[in-house]
Amino acid sequence: MKNKVLFIVTIIVVFLLGLLASSIVNRKSEAKYKYTPSVDIAENEPRNVVWGENYPLEYQSYLQTLDTTFASMQGGSAMRDVLEEDPNLVILFAGYGFSKDYNQGRGHAYAVEDIHNTLRTGGPKGKGDGPMPATCWTCKSPDVPRLMNEIGIAEFYSGKWADKGAEVVNPIGCADCHDNKTMKLKITRPALVEAFDAMGKDINNATHNEMRSLVCAQCHVEYYFNKNLPGKEGTPYLVFPWKDGMTVEDMENYYDNLEFKDWTHKISKAPMLKAQHPGYETFTTGVHADRGVSCADCHMPYKSEGGQKFTDHHIQSPLNNTSNACQVCHREESNKLIANVYERQRKATENRLKLEKLLVKAHLEAKKCWDLGATEAQMKPILTDIRHGQWRWDYSAAAHGASFHSPVETARVIGSGLVIAQEARVKLARLLAELGHNNPIEMPDISTKEKAQEFIGLDMEKLEADKEAFKENLLPKWLEEAKAREDAMPIRTVSSTVE
Q1: Neighbours of 392 (CB within 10 A)
Q2: Cα separation of 133 and 121, whole Å?
């Protein structure tokens, strides 16, 4: 009886081992089949769907960036009207495009659609029209490196945003970060290479792990448009202000030495700086970067599907994917990890809002000084303080993940901004008294986005009507022209050519 039982057990074990061996063989065969190229991806191929023919798992995960259902306390993929949530920003950005429209960006798949829709790009009627330069396309599409290679970098930056509308149609995707032959990570935006050169560094020496953040740093950084580069005068050439370093003070000194300003504030007349989204700069000062964690580790963690391990190209908030993004290293429960992030964000936001309110009052008090006859000499140190204080506020606000990526540095930046803003208001109080005004200024009703926009003189009805006219008349022509161009582009299979 005992021998019979052992015989049966042995048969079962052998059978199970056979199943395991068969599964391993099948998975290896599947892996070999899955990554057999079916098309020859051409150099500068901008169409993500073509890349998806060879890399279906990555492409299918990328398509999930179309999902807009997740919203965290401070981010996510859902569309959010930032001006609606905080009308003070209309005052802070008076005279600049962000006072018209400031929506939180959605997933990468919406990059082109969202720039079509924003009021900041205006309602151009054709080439040479509209408020924005062509440079504003730079981070939106793999059509950008294609165009840069076809017509030249400076030529791409030249002209108006509307000039390139029919050429830039594919949203952020594969060719922005990958070599078409080897799939190695690749820098496709010259501004990052030029920024490294300015710091005396060679980006070609970057390790693979560093590249897993640097491909993100092509876009998630602070930048400005330099119209005074030798040989490129008049062209809004994209530059990262890293020559003197990447801290908030380093970049501020860089801008001050150039006497650069993004715009003149409509209320206070201060020469303002707009922090774009210095995510990479703040990230590098945090503990995760110090431990060698890359952007991709958290925002594009590895996953397995059908026996395949691959990088998840559903680029999103790690809070919507804590099991793969966070708990690989952190053993705490998901709800505890999220609560920790929210606690850091709340604490940073608390002081950032205090700084924001001081700056709003400073802009309005500065206007009162001008109204009472203040001179430029009297106002210059005050306006410099407003410029520096708001730069620090914006640096901490526009780097959307800063309060998590680097809470200590973010607290330091906000703290220094609070000091500068208070100094500005002390100087304003003294000047107002000198000009004969010893009472608090009357604050306007800016309790809603609409009231704040009316206060600064924006004609929102016209802006929205111009945008609708653009979307009805010019945009369809762009898309039609782009479709005709791409329909004529060949897709080459590995064994034949399909026109």
Answers
A1: 27
A2: 9
